[in-house]
């Protein structure tokens, strides 16, 4: 009588050996795998906590001066110099009342109005001149275009301090010192090479087929520029407007050189009037005016900041 030996199915053998037999099957996790996964999670959590703690610390370091300025606007002047703490037991709105009353016989709103005139006029001048110059460099073929564009880019390498003396002599000979003209004339004459370069790069990404189709329909450069290019350049125009407004609003050296009358001073120059080395300086009013001067820039930036990335990326049509 022969012995009959039965062999368990292959799937049972594989299961007994701990080998998966199908695509949907997996080996049960052992205590070693579970402990390794938990250790990896703990390390990842520790790195995440450390990263966020570092970023919070950097944020505090960056924002602390702004917070100190804001709180100092409510402190007496005697507690501002030599004190870096935020809190004071003598907080009041007296500094804002002093700042709004003005200084040197000139009211705060006169300084504010001068800054607003310069900033808004700078935006208008930059947009009008830079868009036209950018269209010429990007879309019109004329002799010496590459040379002129290279010279314009080269002006970005020149510090403003290099041309201060010749510009001042020129405007003084023309009788324009002590007016807003020296501060605004370069804006309306495409003197800001950065904005021209930004718009040229943006415009070069727009397909030329749009120009050719408009030209077939009989449109000239003026119609192509106003009806096709300007609407598509909206991100670059808004970005340039933001930068032009902020730079003009915060400009100190230009008004310091060309403006001599206090009733023409913008806010950055007015802030200097509160610091007098020969008498008592009103640092509290200066901090209050600095806070008031910062508000328009913050509001302008918050309203239009979403366009900055689109403009700097210099991307036209996508698809």
TL;DR?
The protein has helices at 10-17, 31-72, 94-101, 108-139, 145-154, 164-173, 181-188, 193-204, 209-216, 221-232, 234-250, 253-258, 267-272, 283-304, 306-312.
Identify the notable features of this structure and list them briefly.
disordered N terminus, flat, 65% helix, disordered C terminus, 15 helices, mainly alpha, 319 residues
Q: What does this protein look like?
A:
The protein has 319 residues and is mainly alpha-helical. The chain is 65% helix and 0% strand. The protein has 15 helices and no strands. It has helices at residues 10-17, 31-72, 94-101, 108-139, 145-154, 164-173, 181-188, 193-204, 209-216, 221-232, 234-250, 253-258, 267-272, 283-304, 306-312. Helix 9 runs antiparallel to helix 10 (221-232) and helix 11 packs across helix 15. The protein is flat.
Supply Rg.
33 Å
- What is the end-to-end distance? 82 Å
Main sheet attributes: strand count, strand direction, barrel closure:
none
The ordered string of helix (H) and strand (E) elements is HHHHHHHHHHHHHHH
Count up the helices.
15
Topology, pairings included?
Elements: H1 10-17, H2 31-72, H3 94-101, H4 108-139, H5 145-154, H6 164-173, H7 181-188, H8 193-204, H9 209-216, H10 221-232, H11 234-250, H12 253-258, H13 267-272, H14 283-304, H15 306-312
Helix pairs in contact: 3-14, 4-7, 4-8, 4-11, 9-10, 11-14, 11-15
């Amino acid at each position: 009588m022969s012995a009959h030996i039965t062999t368990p199915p292959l799937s049972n053998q594989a299961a007994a050996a701990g080998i998966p037999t199908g695509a949907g099957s997996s080996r049960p996790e052992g205590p070693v795998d579970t402990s390794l996964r938990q250790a990896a999670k703990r390390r990842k959590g520790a790195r995440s906590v450390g990263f966020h703690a570092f970023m919070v610390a950097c944020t505090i370091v960056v924002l602390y001066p702004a917070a100190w300025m804001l709180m100092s606007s409510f402190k007496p002047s005697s507690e501002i110099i030599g004190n870096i703490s935020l809190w004071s037991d003598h907080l009041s709105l007296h500094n804002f009342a002093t700042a709004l009353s003005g200084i040197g016989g000139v009211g705060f709103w006169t300084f504010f109005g001068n800054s607003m005139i310069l900033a808004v006029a700078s935006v208008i001048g930059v947009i009008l001149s830079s868009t036209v110059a950018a269209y010429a460099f990007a879309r019109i073929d004329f002799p010496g275009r590459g040379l002129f564009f290279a010279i314009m880019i080269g002006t970005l390498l020149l510090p403003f301090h290099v041309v201060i003396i010749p510009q001042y002599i020129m405007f003084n000979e023309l009788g324009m010192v002590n007016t807003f003209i020296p501060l605004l004339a370069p804006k309306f004459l495409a003197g800001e090479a950065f904005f021209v370069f930004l718009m040229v790069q943006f415009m070069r990404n727009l397909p030329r087929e749009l120009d050719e189709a408009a030209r077939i329909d009989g449109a000239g450069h003026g119609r192509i520029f106003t009806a096709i290019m300007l609407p598509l350049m909206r991100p670059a125009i808004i970005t340039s407007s933001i930068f032009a407004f902020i730079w003009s609003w915060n400009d100190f050296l230009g008004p310091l050189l060309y403006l001599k009358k206090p009733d023409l001073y913008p806010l950055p120059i007015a802030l200097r009037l509160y610091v007098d080395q020969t008498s008592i300086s009103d640092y509290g009013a200066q901090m209050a005016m600095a806070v008031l001067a910062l508000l328009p820039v913050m509001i302008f930036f918050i309203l239009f900041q979403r366009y900055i990335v689109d403009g700097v990326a210099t991307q036209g049509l996508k698809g």
